[in-house]
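Side project, low priority. Logging it here so it doesn't get lost.
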Amino acid sequence: MTIREQIETKEALLLCDAACASTASRGRLKKEEECTVRTCFQRDIDRIVHSKAFRRLKHKTQVFLQPEGDHYRTRMTHTLEVSRIARTIARGLSLNEDLTEAIALGHDLGHTPFGHAGEVALSQILPGCFRHNEQSLRVVDCLEKNGRGLNLTYEVRDGILCHTGSQMPCTLEGQIIRLADRIAYINHDIDDAIRAGIIREEDIPAPLSALLGNSHRARIDTLTKDVIFQSRGKNAIVQSPEIGDAMEALRQFMFASVYRNPVAKGEESKAKDILLWLFEYYNRNFHLIPADYLQRKDDRARVICDYIAGMTDQYAIRMYSDAFIPLAWQVK
C-alpha cells in the first residue's frame, strides 16, 4: 500500500459522510498517474503554491492602493487568512481540509492589479464583463505553466469558480470558502482601516460589537464558530440568521465607512486609468505581449486582458511609466 493509499484510508475513517474524499474526486481535465505520496487534493495545493500567479499575489492590492507600511494586507495575506479560517471550519465539521485549502489558495489567483478598481477597468474593455473568479479558473486552466495550466481536480476548479456569484459549489468544502472569504476580508479590512486612521474600533455600531465581539480576534472567533455549530449535520454551510445578519450589517458599515471612503479609494480613478491606457498601448503594440500569452490564439482583447490582469501593482505602474513617461535626458 502506498503512502497516498494510507492517507486515503485514514480519510475514510475521519471524514463525515458529506465530505468529499480524495478517492471520490471526479478527476482532472487531463488524466494523470496518481502520486504515490500525496492525494489528488494535496497535489493541487502544491501546484497552486508553486505557481507564478500565487507568488504575484504578494504584490497585489487588497483594499489600500500603495499603502505606506509593512502590515497592510495584500492579496497574498488575504488568501492565507481565508485558508486558515476555512481549514478551521472544515476540521470542525470533519470535512476534507486538503480540498478546502486548495480552493482557498487558488480562489483569488485571477485578481487584477489595484484590487477591484482593476476589475472595474477591465470590465469596461472585455465583452461580457471581467470577473475575478472566472479569471482565477482561467489562470489555473489556461495561463499557468506557459499555457499548459495546472490541470487541477474538478472539485478545486469548481470551488475556485463558485467562491463568489450565484452558482453554489458542488462540495461543502467549496461552500466553506464563500463564507471564509467574507469573514476574512471584512475583519482584516477593519483592522487595516483602523491602522490607517479611517475608523476607530468604537465607530463600529455597538449592537454589532456586542454580538460579534469588539476586537479582530473576537469577531473572527464568533463568526467561525457560528458556521461550525450551525452547519453540523446539514448538507450546507450556513450561518445562524442573527450572526449572518450582523455580518452583513458589518459589511454594509465597511462600504459606507471604508470601501467608499475617499482616503482609502481616492487613487482608484488613477489606477483605472493606468490599466485602460495600458490596454490601448498593447492594442497598438500587440507584438510586445509575451509569447506564452499568445499560444491559445484567443481574440486580441482577451489576450491583452489576460496579460494586464496578471500584473502586480508595481509592474503595471512600471509598464505604464515605460510606455507613457519620457526617459530623462542624460547630459554628459
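Brief comment: The mean pLDDT is 93.
Revisit when time allows.
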